[in-house]
Automatic annotation (TrEMBL):
It is an enzyme of class 3 (hydrolase). Residues 1-234 form the Dynamin-type G domain. Belongs to the TRAFAC class dynamin-like GTPase superfamily. Dynamin/Fzo/YdjA family. This is dynamin GTPase. PANTHER family: DYNAMIN. It comes from Nippostrongylus brasiliensis. Signal peptide: none annotated. Keywords: Endocytosis, GTP-binding, Hydrolase, Microtubule, Motor protein, Nucleotide-binding. SUPFAM superfamilies: P-loop containing nucleoside triphosphate hydrolases. One of its GO terms (biological process) is receptor internalization. Pfam families: Dynamin_M, Dynamin_N.
């Protein structure tokens, strides 16, 4: 289960590019995404059972429309999940749950207690002992103040089922790096940390596809003196 301090989810780096992107809170309802390996590639929503989507731009549009149908078009949120199954030869059999990012200041039609509502929503999912928690934190912020790791620790105090995900490694100040964190020598977790370099908004607007983004990420890690050895460990 993936949640963050208001960041895009690592699910955006999946082989199929269909999750909505944008600024502010984009994920406003939990998305339960069931990936199923199959020789054909298509998607099916629980609320539109029997209707098969082969155009993944249409999948993105349906996620946006179904979100707006329940929450409205002015940044409202809802704990009622969207259920989506994706069949593809390019995925592993896996269920991911994409949750809203933590936020503190209400905007649009969001209630004054938006922070508490999202917090309660996240805890409902990550409290389950059978789930792994992807706690997403930007590398260019202080890990000691990470809301995602703090919340994960409430339900997983020993860090046994939490995976730390560091984003924005490419945006750190010159002369700094996150190697100590990625090597699990700072704020240690049983399952460690993974670093990612996601596409920026400019890449999205320019329609940079997932394969090109993954290639750029690989080149970043291999060319960075602090990360090239860490990359091979992953």
């Amino acid at each position: 289960m993936s949640f963050s301090g208001g960041l895009c989810s690592p699910a955006h780096a999946a082989p199929l590019d269909f999750l909505p992107r944008g600024s502010g809170i984009v994920t406003r309802r939990p998305l339960i995404l069931q990936l199923i390996q199959d020789r054909n590639e298509y998607a099916e929503f629980l609320h539109k059972k029997g209707q098969y989507f082969t155009d993944f731009d249409a999948v993105r549009k349906e996620i946006e429309d179904e979100t707006d149908r329940v929450t409205g078009q002015n940044k409202g949120i809802s704990p009622h999940p969207i259920n989506l199954r994706v069949f593809s030869p390019n995925v592993l059999n896996l269920t991911l749950i994409d949750l809203p990012g933590l936020t503190k200041v209400p905007v649009g039609d969001q209630p004054p207690d938006i922070e508490q509502q999202i917090r309660d929503m996240i805890l409902t999912f990550i409290s389950r002992e059978t789930c792994l928690i992807l706690a997403v934190t930007p590398a260019n912020s202080d890990l000691a103040t990470s809301d995602a790791l703090k919340l994960a620790k409430e339900v997983d105090p020993q860090g046994l089922r939490t995976i730390g995900v560091l984003t924005k490694l490419d945006l750190m100040d010159e002369g700094t790096d996150a190697r100590e964190i990625l090597e699990n020598r700072l704020f240690a977790l049983r399952r460690g940390y993974v670093g990612v370099v996601n596409r920026g908004q400019k890449d999205i607007v320019g329609k940079k596809d997932i394969r090109a983004a993954l290639d750029a990420e690989r080149k970043f890690f291999l060319s960075h003196p602090a990360y090239r050895w860490v990359y091979f460990e992953f």
